[in-house]
Write a structure and sequence with these properties.
alpha+beta, Jelly Rolls, Phage tail protein beta-alpha-beta fold, 19-stranded mixed β-sheet, 3-stranded mixed β-sheet, globular
Length: about 375
Amino acid sequence: MRLDLYRVIELFRKSFSNSLSDREKEELDDIFQNDYLDEVYEQLSDDRFIEMKFREFDGYEYKPAFEKLIRYHRRSIVRKWIAWSTSVAAVIIFVLLFVYSNFQSTNNQCTPLAFQERIILPGSKSAVLKLADGRVVTMGEQPLEIVTDKGGVVKYDKGQLSYSSEEPFAEELFNELEVPRGGECQVLLDDGTKVWLNADSRLKYPIVFNGVERKVILSGEAYFEVKKNARPFIVSTDAGDIIVLGTAFGIRAYPEEVDYTTLVSGKVSFQSKNNQKIILSPGEQIVVHASGEVEKREVNVEEYIGWKSGLFVFKNKTLETIMNMFERWYNVEVIFQNDELRSLKFTGDLERYDSINTFLHLLERLNEMKYEIKGNTILLFK
Protein backbone atom coordinates (compact mmCIF):
# COMPACT_ATOMS: atom_id res chain seq x y z
CA MET A 1 0.00 0.00 0.00
CA ARG A 2 1.36 3.40 -0.97
CA LEU A 3 2.15 5.59 2.02
CA ASP A 4 -0.08 8.66 1.66
CA LEU A 5 0.81 10.63 4.78
CA TYR A 6 -1.72 13.37 4.17
CA ARG A 7 -4.63 10.93 3.96
CA VAL A 8 -3.34 9.10 7.05
CA ILE A 9 -3.21 12.36 9.01
CA GLU A 10 -6.76 13.24 7.99
CA LEU A 11 -8.13 9.81 8.94
CA PHE A 12 -6.31 9.84 12.28
CA ARG A 13 -7.67 13.31 13.02
CA LYS A 14 -11.23 12.25 12.22
CA SER A 15 -10.84 9.09 14.28
CA PHE A 16 -9.80 11.02 17.39
CA SER A 17 -12.75 13.41 16.91
CA ASN A 18 -15.22 10.52 16.28
CA SER A 19 -16.23 11.88 12.87
CA LEU A 20 -15.27 8.98 10.57
CA SER A 21 -17.77 7.76 8.00
CA ASP A 22 -18.31 4.00 7.59
CA ARG A 23 -16.22 4.04 4.43
CA GLU A 24 -13.42 5.92 6.19
CA LYS A 25 -13.48 3.40 9.04
CA GLU A 26 -12.84 0.65 6.52
CA GLU A 27 -10.04 2.70 5.00
CA LEU A 28 -8.49 3.20 8.43
CA ASP A 29 -8.66 -0.54 9.11
CA ASP A 30 -6.66 -1.08 5.92
CA ILE A 31 -4.08 1.44 7.10
CA PHE A 32 -3.68 -0.50 10.35
CA GLN A 33 -2.30 -3.37 8.29
CA ASN A 34 0.87 -1.30 8.16
CA ASP A 35 2.67 -2.14 11.41
CA TYR A 36 4.39 1.24 11.54
CA LEU A 37 1.15 3.20 11.31
CA ASP A 38 -0.70 0.87 13.65
CA GLU A 39 2.00 1.54 16.26
CA VAL A 40 1.80 5.29 15.67
CA TYR A 41 -1.96 5.25 16.23
CA GLU A 42 -1.59 3.32 19.49
CA GLN A 43 1.05 5.75 20.70
CA LEU A 44 -1.10 8.76 19.82
CA SER A 45 -3.84 7.31 22.02
CA ASP A 46 -1.48 7.56 24.99
CA ASP A 47 -1.49 11.06 26.56
CA ARG A 48 1.88 10.45 28.16
CA PHE A 49 3.43 9.60 24.81
CA ILE A 50 2.02 12.77 23.23
CA GLU A 51 3.46 14.94 26.01
CA MET A 52 6.83 13.20 25.71
CA LYS A 53 6.95 13.73 21.93
CA PHE A 54 6.29 17.43 22.26
CA ARG A 55 9.11 17.70 24.77
CA GLU A 56 11.51 15.63 22.67
CA PHE A 57 10.71 17.16 19.31
CA ASP A 58 13.10 20.07 19.66
CA GLY A 59 15.99 17.70 20.36
CA TYR A 60 16.02 16.13 16.89
CA GLU A 61 16.84 17.18 13.39
CA TYR A 62 13.50 17.13 11.60
CA LYS A 63 14.56 19.05 8.49
CA PRO A 64 15.76 16.00 6.45
CA ALA A 65 12.48 14.19 7.09
CA PHE A 66 10.49 17.27 6.16
CA GLU A 67 12.45 17.71 2.93
CA LYS A 68 11.68 14.10 2.00
CA LEU A 69 8.01 14.80 2.63
CA ILE A 70 8.17 17.90 0.45
CA ARG A 71 9.58 15.79 -2.40
CA TYR A 72 6.87 13.21 -1.80
CA HIS A 73 4.05 15.74 -2.26
CA ARG A 74 3.77 19.04 -4.03
CA ARG A 75 4.44 22.16 -1.97
CA SER A 76 0.93 23.49 -2.61
CA ILE A 77 -0.54 20.55 -0.70
CA VAL A 78 1.62 21.35 2.31
CA ARG A 79 -0.30 24.58 2.71
CA LYS A 80 -3.43 22.58 3.53
CA TRP A 81 -1.83 21.67 6.85
CA ILE A 82 -3.14 24.79 8.48
CA ALA A 83 -6.67 23.35 8.24
CA TRP A 84 -5.44 20.41 10.33
CA SER A 85 -3.55 22.40 12.92
CA THR A 86 -5.16 20.84 15.97
CA SER A 87 -2.85 19.51 18.64
CA VAL A 88 -3.55 15.92 17.59
CA ALA A 89 -2.84 16.72 13.95
CA ALA A 90 0.41 18.42 14.91
CA VAL A 91 1.53 15.40 16.91
CA ILE A 92 0.58 13.08 14.06
CA ILE A 93 2.63 15.16 11.66
CA PHE A 94 5.68 15.16 13.90
CA VAL A 95 5.49 11.43 14.66
CA LEU A 96 4.81 10.47 11.05
CA LEU A 97 7.74 12.55 9.89
CA PHE A 98 9.91 10.67 12.35
CA VAL A 99 8.54 7.28 11.26
CA TYR A 100 8.70 8.18 7.57
CA SER A 101 12.30 9.27 7.91
CA ASN A 102 13.24 5.96 9.54
CA PHE A 103 11.09 3.99 7.12
CA GLN A 104 12.88 5.50 4.13
CA SER A 105 16.38 5.24 5.55
CA THR A 106 18.46 2.50 7.10
CA ASN A 107 20.10 5.07 9.32
CA ASN A 108 18.05 5.18 12.52
CA GLN A 109 20.27 7.69 14.32
CA CYS A 110 18.83 11.05 15.25
CA THR A 111 21.08 14.04 14.88
CA PRO A 112 20.94 16.55 17.73
CA LEU A 113 20.20 20.14 16.86
CA ALA A 114 23.08 22.57 16.92
CA PHE A 115 21.25 24.50 19.63
CA GLN A 116 18.34 23.87 21.94
CA GLU A 117 15.44 26.20 21.25
CA ARG A 118 13.79 27.68 24.30
CA ILE A 119 10.39 26.10 24.96
CA ILE A 120 7.75 28.65 25.94
CA LEU A 121 5.20 26.81 28.04
CA PRO A 122 1.51 27.74 28.23
CA GLY A 123 -0.08 29.62 31.07
CA SER A 124 -1.05 27.93 34.32
CA LYS A 125 -3.28 28.32 37.35
CA SER A 126 -2.27 31.65 38.85
CA ALA A 127 -4.06 34.60 40.42
CA VAL A 128 -3.88 37.30 43.09
CA LEU A 129 -6.80 37.69 45.50
CA LYS A 130 -7.41 41.02 47.23
CA LEU A 131 -9.51 40.41 50.33
CA ALA A 132 -11.98 42.85 51.84
CA ASP A 133 -9.76 43.20 54.93
CA GLY A 134 -6.88 44.48 52.78
CA ARG A 135 -4.81 41.31 52.64
CA VAL A 136 -3.36 40.22 49.32
CA VAL A 137 -2.96 36.49 48.64
CA THR A 138 -1.02 35.01 45.73
CA MET A 139 -2.36 31.70 44.43
CA GLY A 140 -0.75 29.12 42.16
CA GLU A 141 -0.85 25.35 41.88
CA GLN A 142 -0.98 24.63 45.63
CA PRO A 143 -4.29 24.55 47.57
CA LEU A 144 -4.98 27.26 50.14
CA GLU A 145 -7.52 27.93 52.88
CA ILE A 146 -7.96 31.44 54.25
CA VAL A 147 -10.06 32.55 57.22
CA THR A 148 -11.33 36.11 56.87
CA ASP A 149 -11.70 38.58 59.73
CA LYS A 150 -15.49 38.18 59.42
CA GLY A 151 -15.33 34.44 60.05
CA GLY A 152 -15.75 33.34 56.45
CA VAL A 153 -13.56 30.71 54.80
CA VAL A 154 -11.99 31.11 51.36
CA LYS A 155 -10.81 27.88 49.76
CA TYR A 156 -8.57 27.54 46.70
CA ASP A 157 -8.04 24.13 45.17
CA LYS A 158 -7.19 22.95 41.65
CA GLY A 159 -7.41 26.47 40.30
CA GLN A 160 -10.88 27.22 41.71
CA LEU A 161 -11.80 29.70 44.42
CA SER A 162 -14.88 29.20 46.62
CA TYR A 163 -16.43 30.77 49.71
CA SER A 164 -18.29 29.53 52.77
CA SER A 165 -19.55 31.13 55.98
CA GLU A 166 -21.53 29.94 58.97
CA GLU A 167 -22.97 33.39 59.63
CA PRO A 168 -24.51 35.73 56.99
CA PHE A 169 -22.72 39.03 56.35
CA ALA A 170 -24.68 42.10 57.32
CA GLU A 171 -22.75 44.31 54.91
CA GLU A 172 -21.71 43.78 51.30
CA LEU A 173 -17.95 43.10 51.26
CA PHE A 174 -15.99 42.91 48.02
CA ASN A 175 -13.07 40.79 46.88
CA GLU A 176 -11.05 41.40 43.73
CA LEU A 177 -9.49 38.58 41.74
CA GLU A 178 -6.64 39.48 39.39
CA VAL A 179 -5.30 36.94 36.89
CA PRO A 180 -1.89 37.91 35.45
CA ARG A 181 -0.60 37.35 31.94
CA GLY A 182 0.16 33.67 31.65
CA GLY A 183 -2.48 32.74 34.24
CA GLU A 184 -6.05 31.47 34.62
CA CYS A 185 -8.45 30.95 37.51
CA GLN A 186 -12.03 29.93 38.34
CA VAL A 187 -14.26 31.30 41.05
CA LEU A 188 -17.51 29.94 42.45
CA LEU A 189 -19.59 32.90 43.57
CA ASP A 190 -21.95 33.04 46.53
CA ASP A 191 -25.05 32.34 44.40
CA GLY A 192 -23.56 29.28 42.69
CA THR A 193 -22.49 31.14 39.54
CA LYS A 194 -19.23 29.82 38.04
CA VAL A 195 -16.73 32.17 36.43
CA TRP A 196 -13.67 31.24 34.37
CA LEU A 197 -11.15 34.10 34.19
CA ASN A 198 -8.68 34.23 31.31
CA ALA A 199 -5.17 35.69 31.40
CA ASP A 200 -4.70 39.40 32.12
CA SER A 201 -8.20 39.80 33.59
CA ARG A 202 -9.76 41.21 36.74
CA LEU A 203 -13.08 40.53 38.47
CA LYS A 204 -14.51 42.47 41.42
CA TYR A 205 -17.42 40.81 43.22
CA PRO A 206 -19.21 40.75 46.61
CA ILE A 207 -18.46 37.83 48.91
CA VAL A 208 -22.23 37.54 49.46
CA PHE A 209 -24.93 38.98 47.19
CA ASN A 210 -27.11 40.86 49.70
CA GLY A 211 -28.81 43.33 47.38
CA VAL A 212 -31.72 43.16 44.95
CA GLU A 213 -29.27 42.45 42.14
CA ARG A 214 -26.12 40.38 41.70
CA LYS A 215 -23.49 42.66 40.22
CA VAL A 216 -19.83 42.07 39.36
CA ILE A 217 -17.28 44.22 37.53
CA LEU A 218 -15.07 42.75 34.82
CA SER A 219 -11.98 43.92 32.97
CA GLY A 220 -10.51 41.35 30.57
CA GLU A 221 -12.01 38.05 29.47
CA ALA A 222 -14.29 35.65 31.34
CA TYR A 223 -16.85 32.93 30.80
CA PHE A 224 -19.94 32.87 33.04
CA GLU A 225 -22.35 30.09 33.92
CA VAL A 226 -24.94 32.07 35.87
CA LYS A 227 -27.09 30.27 38.42
CA LYS A 228 -30.75 30.95 37.79
CA ASN A 229 -32.17 33.32 40.38
CA ALA A 230 -35.02 35.82 40.65
CA ARG A 231 -32.47 38.59 41.10
CA PRO A 232 -30.79 39.81 37.88
CA PHE A 233 -27.10 39.07 37.43
CA ILE A 234 -25.19 42.03 36.00
CA VAL A 235 -21.67 42.08 34.56
CA SER A 236 -20.42 45.63 34.28
CA THR A 237 -17.65 46.49 31.81
CA ASP A 238 -16.25 49.73 30.39
CA ALA A 239 -18.47 49.21 27.32
CA GLY A 240 -21.75 48.59 29.18
CA ASP A 241 -23.72 46.16 31.31
CA ILE A 242 -24.76 42.58 30.51
CA ILE A 243 -27.96 41.65 32.38
CA VAL A 244 -29.15 38.04 32.80
CA LEU A 245 -31.16 35.78 35.08
CA GLY A 246 -29.56 32.41 34.36
CA THR A 247 -27.46 31.62 31.31
CA ALA A 248 -24.00 30.88 29.88
CA PHE A 249 -22.00 33.47 28.00
CA GLY A 250 -18.53 34.80 27.37
CA ILE A 251 -17.21 38.35 27.59
CA ARG A 252 -14.00 39.80 26.23
CA ALA A 253 -13.55 43.34 27.51
CA TYR A 254 -9.88 44.26 27.56
CA PRO A 255 -9.07 47.98 27.91
CA GLU A 256 -8.69 49.86 24.61
CA GLU A 257 -9.81 46.85 22.54
CA VAL A 258 -13.02 45.83 20.79
CA ASP A 259 -15.47 44.28 23.28
CA TYR A 260 -17.33 41.02 22.61
CA THR A 261 -20.26 39.45 24.47
CA THR A 262 -21.10 35.98 23.12
CA LEU A 263 -24.20 34.07 24.23
CA VAL A 264 -24.03 30.27 24.50
CA SER A 265 -27.42 29.53 26.10
CA GLY A 266 -30.34 31.40 27.64
CA LYS A 267 -30.91 35.07 26.92
CA VAL A 268 -29.09 38.26 27.89
CA SER A 269 -29.72 41.97 27.60
CA PHE A 270 -26.85 44.31 26.77
CA GLN A 271 -27.07 47.96 27.73
CA SER A 272 -24.36 50.27 26.42
CA LYS A 273 -23.06 53.33 28.21
CA ASN A 274 -25.32 55.50 26.07
CA ASN A 275 -28.34 53.37 27.14
CA GLN A 276 -28.71 51.48 23.88
CA LYS A 277 -30.37 48.11 24.69
CA ILE A 278 -29.98 44.90 22.67
CA ILE A 279 -31.30 41.38 23.40
CA LEU A 280 -29.11 38.40 22.50
CA SER A 281 -30.22 34.86 21.66
CA PRO A 282 -27.93 31.78 21.69
CA GLY A 283 -25.29 31.93 18.95
CA GLU A 284 -25.41 35.73 18.77
CA GLN A 285 -22.79 38.25 19.76
CA ILE A 286 -22.60 41.93 20.62
CA VAL A 287 -19.51 43.78 19.37
CA VAL A 288 -18.71 47.21 20.80
CA HIS A 289 -16.19 48.97 18.60
CA ALA A 290 -13.69 51.58 19.76
CA SER A 291 -15.91 54.29 18.26
CA GLY A 292 -18.76 53.20 20.53
CA GLU A 293 -20.70 51.65 17.66
CA VAL A 294 -22.62 48.53 18.72
CA GLU A 295 -23.02 45.60 16.32
CA LYS A 296 -25.11 42.45 16.73
CA ARG A 297 -24.19 39.36 14.70
CA GLU A 298 -24.37 35.56 14.54
CA VAL A 299 -21.12 33.68 15.26
CA ASN A 300 -19.62 30.28 15.93
CA VAL A 301 -19.47 30.57 19.71
CA GLU A 302 -16.49 28.16 19.98
CA GLU A 303 -14.28 30.81 18.38
CA TYR A 304 -14.88 33.01 21.39
CA ILE A 305 -15.34 30.63 24.31
CA GLY A 306 -13.23 27.64 23.24
CA TRP A 307 -10.40 28.79 25.52
CA LYS A 308 -12.51 27.83 28.55
CA SER A 309 -12.46 24.20 27.33
CA GLY A 310 -8.75 24.24 26.49
CA LEU A 311 -8.89 25.15 22.80
CA PHE A 312 -7.93 28.11 20.66
CA VAL A 313 -10.37 28.14 17.73
CA PHE A 314 -9.44 30.29 14.73
CA LYS A 315 -11.52 30.99 11.64
CA ASN A 316 -9.86 33.37 9.19
CA LYS A 317 -8.11 35.07 12.09
CA THR A 318 -5.15 37.30 11.28
CA LEU A 319 -1.76 36.42 12.67
CA GLU A 320 -1.78 39.72 14.56
CA THR A 321 -5.04 38.78 16.32
CA ILE A 322 -3.74 35.33 17.18
CA MET A 323 -0.50 36.69 18.56
CA ASN A 324 -2.36 39.22 20.71
CA MET A 325 -4.11 36.28 22.38
CA PHE A 326 -0.85 34.36 22.71
CA GLU A 327 0.93 37.31 24.28
CA ARG A 328 -1.49 37.18 27.19
CA TRP A 329 -1.63 33.40 27.59
CA TYR A 330 2.07 32.67 27.17
CA ASN A 331 3.20 35.95 28.79
CA VAL A 332 5.42 36.90 25.87
CA GLU A 333 6.00 39.87 23.60
CA VAL A 334 5.65 39.30 19.85
CA ILE A 335 7.43 41.64 17.45
CA PHE A 336 6.59 41.69 13.72
CA GLN A 337 9.69 42.72 11.83
CA ASN A 338 7.67 42.64 8.58
CA ASP A 339 4.26 44.30 8.83
CA GLU A 340 2.76 42.25 5.99
CA LEU A 341 2.93 39.18 8.24
CA ARG A 342 0.29 40.72 10.51
CA SER A 343 -2.49 40.23 7.96
CA LEU A 344 -1.85 36.54 7.21
CA LYS A 345 -5.00 34.55 8.03
CA PHE A 346 -5.34 31.12 9.60
CA THR A 347 -8.12 28.64 10.28
CA GLY A 348 -7.80 25.75 12.71
CA ASP A 349 -7.80 24.64 16.34
CA LEU A 350 -4.86 24.55 18.72
CA GLU A 351 -4.57 23.04 22.17
CA ARG A 352 -4.38 25.86 24.70
CA TYR A 353 -2.03 23.85 26.90
CA ASP A 354 0.61 23.18 24.23
CA SER A 355 3.83 25.15 24.14
CA ILE A 356 3.80 28.10 21.76
CA ASN A 357 6.63 26.41 19.88
CA THR A 358 4.17 23.97 18.29
CA PHE A 359 2.42 26.83 16.50
CA LEU A 360 5.67 28.57 15.63
CA HIS A 361 6.98 25.43 13.91
CA LEU A 362 3.84 25.32 11.78
CA LEU A 363 4.16 29.00 10.91
CA GLU A 364 7.71 28.53 9.76
CA ARG A 365 6.91 25.52 7.59
CA LEU A 366 3.61 26.67 6.11
CA ASN A 367 4.19 30.32 5.28
CA GLU A 368 7.88 30.75 4.54
CA MET A 369 8.16 32.67 7.78
CA LYS A 370 10.96 32.54 10.28
CA TYR A 371 11.03 33.21 13.98
CA GLU A 372 13.52 33.71 16.76
CA ILE A 373 12.98 33.43 20.51
CA LYS A 374 14.95 35.76 22.75
CA GLY A 375 13.95 35.31 26.36
CA ASN A 376 10.22 36.13 26.48
CA THR A 377 10.31 37.95 23.14
CA ILE A 378 9.37 36.28 19.85
CA LEU A 379 10.56 37.87 16.61
CA LEU A 380 8.61 37.07 13.42
CA PHE A 381 10.21 37.87 10.06
CA LYS A 382 10.39 36.71 6.43
